[in-house]
Amino acid sequence: MRVCIVGGGGGASNAANVIRRLDKDVQIDIFTDRAEIGNQPCEIPFVLKGDLPSWGDTFVFKQKFYGERNINVHFNTEVIGIIRTERRLTAGEESFNYDKLILDLGAIPTIPPIPGIDGENEFVLTTNLKTARVFEEAISKYSTAAIIGTGQIALEIAAILKAKNYERVYLLGRSDSLLRAYLDKDMAERIEARVQDNGIDLILSAKIDSIASQNGKKALSLSDRELEVDFVFFATGSRPNTELAQKAGLKIGVTGGIVVNEYLQTSDPDIYAIGDCIENWDAILGLKRLYQTATSAAKGGRLAATNIVLGNVLPYEGTTMPFVMETFGYQVGTAGFTESYAREKNLDVVSNIMTTATRRRAFGGKTIHIKLIADRKTRTLVGAQLTSEELVAGKIDRLAVAIAEKIPVERLALIDTCYHPTVGTAYEPIVMALDELRLTLDNIR
């Protein structure tokens, strides 16, 4: 059997690795239009900031990895067509047959249609190190910038520029709060305060009328003010890269992603799709959505590979959208729905916010803010939001499992936890918050 994989992301590498572990005889070919693959895109900001000394440090899957596993990587090879009836793909003048095909096509940055955008001193980041190197060179030349966007990438770029001693950094977007896809406004306010305390000019609910290039600068005209900076960085989201799939006649969903079934097969059973290019769905209500993360791509690669070799034995059950990031020394972690999104979907939810400590303060414990959201009817968690200076990721992972498994709040509030004074508290913060949520559901709080 020959499996071809189009795309050079982490999902592709994970898929190839699992295929080889399951079957030593399968021929595996990866096709990428890039000159290099194997880097961790999430680590790009850490090279730009200087926390990692070089781009080479971001590579997890190196040439040795592919060579030891007998995986053929076709660099600088853009696949331009898929002939499904012949199970064949074309790249330039060459054709390659396949038995099974995996599409790991990634996503493309979206830039809002603001009048005056001309590409001059305007930057984005992608998973491709090529764009990162271009931006790295620009950072060293300038001292002022406007970042358009209010999500994770926007915050990471703001932190990078402040670490580079930029004189002025504006962070602006249409949203009325930061990280709106992940945090309700009552939780986002803490992040906004931390961002402003670090010298970022935060402009929310911004309406940008135009952008212009003037005398080597970028002029931004807002509804209530004018800004002049050296460059503009766009962190305004991305859309699934589906051009190749559309040309091949594969079904595209309402979100713009490639439609896949529970085994990650597309509308063609011989073609699987993974990562940022697919139409995902949540594990709470089964609603279609985009969920573009490195962990999702890696998981999809493992699932698709297993199903190709063993015959659709491992179904995908949707995502609880776990998310974590660090910004200006503050960790943000979320899973499931925000309260505002849950209410938009007509769920009858209750929520509570608790502020406590991650562990005993005598041992260095930090303040942690916990927001939990539950469905009143099913009495199960549908969302969680945490902010602290430490120990967020592990708690979010546990809450994501609780959401996926629809464990009743009463059971979660009585779950056993481990304890040692230096790493936690006898009354675990999450259990404490769950107990309060139980009382809220019972109308005792």
Describe the structure.
By secondary structure, this protein is α/β, with parallel strands linked by helices. The chain folds into three domains: about 1-40 and about 50-105 and about 240-310, FAD/NAD(P)-binding domain, CATH 3.50.50.60; about 110-235, FAD/NAD(P)-binding domain (3-Layer(bba) Sandwich); about 325-440, Enolase-like, domain 1, CATH 3.30.390.30. The protein has helices at about 10-20, 45-50, 65-70, 130-140, 150-165, 185-195, 245, 295-310, 340-345, 395-405, 410-415, 430-440; strands at about 1-5, 25-30, 70-75, 80-85, 90, 95, 100-105, 105-110, 120-125, 145-150, 170, 200-205, 210-215, 215-220, 225-230, 230-235, 240, 270-275, 280, 290, 325, 330-335, 350-355, 365-375, 380-390. A five-stranded parallel sheet has the order 3-2-1-7-18. β13 and β14 (about 215-220) form a beta hairpin.
